[in-house]
Amino acid sequence: MPNDIRTGIRPETQKASPLRGGIEAIVRADHGDPFAILGMHQDGEGQPVEVRTFIPGAERVWVIDSANGDPVAEADRVHDEGFFLATMPDRTQRFRYRLRVQFPLATQEFEDAFRFGNVLGELDIHLLAEGTHMKSYERLGAHPREIDGVAGVAFALWAPNARRVSVVGDFCDWDGRRLPMRKRMEAGVWEIFVPGATAGQRYKFEIKGAGGDLLPLKSDPYAFQAEMRPQTASVVHGLPKYGWQDQTWQQTRAHCAERTAPISIYEVHLGSWARVPEDGDRFLTYRELADRLVPYVKDLGFTHIEMLPITEHPFDGSWGYQPIGLYAPTSRHGTPEDFKYFVDACHAAGIGLLLDWVPGHFPTDPHGLGWFDGTHLYEHADPRQGYHQDWNTLIYNFGRTEVQNFLLGNALFWLDHYRLDGLRVDAVASMLYLDYSRKAGEWIPNQFGGRENLESIAFLKRMNELTYGHHQGIMTVAEESTAWPAVSRPVYLGGLGFGYKWNMGWMHDTLEYMAKDPIHRRYHHHQLTFGLIYQFSENFVLPLSHDEVVHGKGSLINKMPGDDWQKFANLRAYYGFMFAHPGKKLLFMGGEFGQWREWSEARSLDWHLLEEPLHQGLQSLVRDLNRMYRDLKPLHQTDCDPAGFEWIEANDSDNSVLAFLRKETDDPEHQVVVVCNFTPIPRHGYRVGVALPGHYAEVLNTDATEYGGSGVGNEGGLESEDTAWHGRPHSINVTLPPLGTVVLERKAG
Q1: One of 206, 267, 344, 426 is an active-site residue; which one?
Q2: Closest to 388 in 3D by CA, of 437, 448, 316
């Protein structure tokens, strides 16, 4: 008798008839509850057990008793596509079994994924549904584990609106019919244990939307490793294991992030700091970066490295700011263990490591989070809320507890498992305002009619509470470009809870000033002083970041006016002003030696420039500025305290000269006087008032010959005179070098 053409079910197999609809759904990969059909089943206690399996391409299937390895029954093919059913009348108790399968070219024996129970426990499901599982990454994603003595991988995915989800990968020939997952209705999470799957295998999720449409294969949002671009599959890895050697750092780092500590950050794009030209201009590995970048940063005296985003991203040109794998360090430089080696090397050198973290938006690549389960799951449905017009990216729906859980868990993940020392949070301004970069009618007000994104604000506060609450000695830093109040104040005092905020206003004003010809600077003098009006309203970082040396803005050295000598002198004087100014410091790579070309992510820095004296000199100055900043308490202890700063001369616009005082709280008589001359004219006998008598040692002069300067200075220091000046009872008679900054430390006695 021929098969039923409509179904493919063999009519002689009567025992399959009650399952006709379920079998058809399994074969079409359209069953929402595959465990109800597949695996071992029995109609009731004492009834014969039967095993049902769907193996496309199989010719014969036997059920094997795992206890002794003997065949128990050969299954009947009940559907032409490869659905088999074995009934065992003499077996009325469930037992562990394997399947022996004959294919046209080979016979294989393996465990049946559908004989295993739930992957996630009830508590996990409850916390995931509630959106309060702060270690959701330990349950969702792909985790190698052993169940019932069988090694395999447990997969779990949040996709509540999907009609069907299958895991596909190297372990099932990427066939979405083979491993449909069980849905835990309480949390909208799909799960399956795949016996025999191993670390290193590639995988994705095949998702059918609620309307039956098959979506593009999706990468795992919780993957710990991903393929090297342009490939986009996730890689089974599990939480990376590593024998940490940074116990000393962990015990002492609590002081490294304090407002009173010297914090000088070297911002790095790992893919372009240096390349390996003799090997196809490839990226450095994490281990090579540990051996080359870390000693370099240590030698220059920076206290922290801040990495542009190394979370996995498909497009090099995004610099990492359009991430898809938030839980995976990019494979461009090696494995997760290699990245841990790099972190360990930083800590061994006494250097903190910060991650540029991007929780505000994500790209539209089809394998990513957008339209994840056939609905706007991670993003807002309304483009006025869910689409970034500037960046062609999607905006997280912070009002959804599961989305917050995903992101909050990610913040903790990098601090927990990679022992990073902080997060610089990207584009905070875009998260705070509903009308960010939008015209009237292009945004939706909040429930009170305002422009503030209340859900995002609540998320940022919670993120800071959790990160600071769980990890002593870390820091969070906001890239926030508006006048939003109390960004770096604790949540319990009404702030957003960040440790620090980038001072974008200072950066903009001072760089605009420095770009002007010195003859015109007198008319823009207060671009240098204006920042002190609001300097202590936040805990500020002074950022000369990657954003200032791209998109036609020119490198820092090329922003400076004049001939080559004057460009370097200007930049040296500016760095001196910056390092003496209140606020923590940040300098993007290449700025320390005066790279001429704009930065590009596609090539190495121009290290050959260090063969030239002016570039060497600038690098030496940065090294000495970091040493000075670290060694002199007045220059770092009161970075965030108005008690540590006084203007001595803020209004000498005619000469483009500034003079100010820095002092420490522990010893107010330990004072540092800073004088900046932003014209190319040396000024001899420039009198500067001081409150205390003593010897004022010249601890740094940006015009020193070893830095490439003209050598105009104060011969090591000055004695104060009892001549009142600038409203102070004493004064010093300073020689100001052309386009130079002089730093003088008071020595009592």
Answers
A1: 426
A2: 437
Task: Report d(CA 109, CA 103) in Å as an integer.
Answer: 11
Using the predicted structure, report yes or no on whether residue 342 has a pLDDT greater than 90: yes
Letter for the amino acid at 54?
F
> What whole-number distance in Å separates Cα of residue 67 and Cα of residue 72?
11
Distance CA 635, CA 536 (A): 15
Strands 264-268 and 584-588: parallel
Q: What is the 3-state secondary structure (H, E, C) of 355-372?
A: EEECCCEEECCCCCCCCC
- What CA–CA distance (Å, rounded) separates 435 from 432? 9
Nearest CA to 513 out of 608, 577, 437 is that of 577
Phi/psi of residue 550, each to 5°? Answer: -140, 175
639 is a catalytic site residue: no
Check if 426 is active-site.
yes
Backbone angles phi, psi at 444, to 5 degrees: -115, 125
Question: Contact, 555 vs 590, CB < 8 A?
Answer: yes
Q: Which residues, at least 6 apart from 148, have a Cβ–Cβ distance to it below 8 Å?
A: 96, 116
State the catalytic residue, choosing from 479, 509, 639, 745: 479
The residue count of the chain comes to: 749
If one counts every other C-beta atom within 10 angstroms of the C-beta of residue 139, the result is 21
Phi/psi for 535 (5° steps) reads -55, -40
CA distance 551 to 546: 10
The pLDDT tens digits for 236-264 are: 999 988 999 999 999 989 899 999 999 99
Structure tokens at 551: 């998109």
Structure tokens at 625: 């500025």
Enter the pTM of the model.
0.94
